[in-house]
Each structure stands twice: as C-alpha cells, then as structure tokens.
Amino acid sequence: MPAPRKYPPELVERAVQLVIEKRRNEPGRSAVVREVGELLGIHPEVLRHWVNKADGGVGRGLREPAGDAERVRLLEEENANLRRSNSILKSAAVIFAAEIEHGNSVD
C-alpha cells in the first residue's frame, strides 16, 4: 500500500507552475525553487523533484507547455479548480451569514 500523499495534487500543480512562470520572467535567478518552496511551505528538494518530473526528466531545463492544446487543458483545469473554490467560499458565506443573523435575533 503506497504512503498517503502529503500534498494535494492541486498544490503540486500550482507550485510547479509558479516555478515555471518565475523562471520564465526572471531567467537569471537560481533560487526560484527555494523561494517558491518557502512561500508554499514545501521542502525545496521535493519541489525540485516535482518540477523535474513535470519537465520529463532530471537535469533538463524547464520548457513551455507542449502547445495551445496543452495550455487550454491547463487553463480549463485551473478554471474548474477556481469554480470549486468559489462554490466553497459561497457556501461558507451563507453559513456565516446565517450564524450572524441567528446571533442578532437572540439579543
């Protein structure tokens, strides 16, 4: 039985994308993986492994997505994640509003 995953797949994907974007925007910087790892609470070597795996192998430079189809797929996936998050936040807002309303009517 494999060990349980410590990080959700959405976090892994977003962390890798952040590294790729930062390296594209700041090509001379060498500490990007460490900075992103610290920002997201991920050990830099774990993040470096994810980035290399996403790139197709250790030691190869990061490359852009394969093309428009890949970019569209990634954007659609991100859109779905954002819609899910938005739905959760809306539900939480309704619950908190009900609690506030209930609390005010008791006084």
What does this protein look like?
Helix content is 72%, strand content 0%. The chain has 2 domains: 1-64, Winged helix-like DNA-binding domain superfamily/Winged helix DNA-binding domain (Arc Repressor Mutant, subunit A); 67-107. Residues 58-63 have low confidence and may be disordered. It starts with 8 loop residues before the first helix and ends with a helix. It contains 4 helices and no strands. The chain has helices spanning 9-25, 32-40, 44-55, 68-106. It has 107 residues and is mostly helical. Helix 1 (9-25) crosses helix 3.
Topology:
Elements (H helix, E strand, L loop, with lengths): L8 H17 L6 H9 L3 H12 L12 H39 L1
Helix pairs in contact: 1-2, 1-3, 2-3
SSE order, as H and E? HHHH
Structural class per helix/strand content?
mainly alpha
Low-pLDDT runs of 5+ residues are 58-63
Shape: elongated
CATH superfamily of the largest domain: Winged helix-like DNA-binding domain superfamily/Winged helix DNA-binding domain
Content of β-strand: under 5%
How many H/I helices? 4
Q: What is the first-to-last residue Cα distance? A: 54 Å
CA-atom Rg in angstroms:
19 Å
Query: Average pLDDT, to the nearest integer?
Result: 82
CATH class identity of the largest domain:
Mainly Alpha
Main beta sheet strand tally, sense and closure: none
Number of domains: 2
Provide the CATH topology of the largest domain.
Answer: Arc Repressor Mutant, subunit A
Q: Helical amount among residues, as a percent range?
A: over 70%
Pfam family, one: HTH_Tnp_1
Protein name: Transposase
Organism: Streptomyces sp. 900116325
InterPro entries: Homeodomain-like_sf (IPR009057), Transposase_8 (IPR002514), WH-like_DNA-bd_sf (IPR036388)
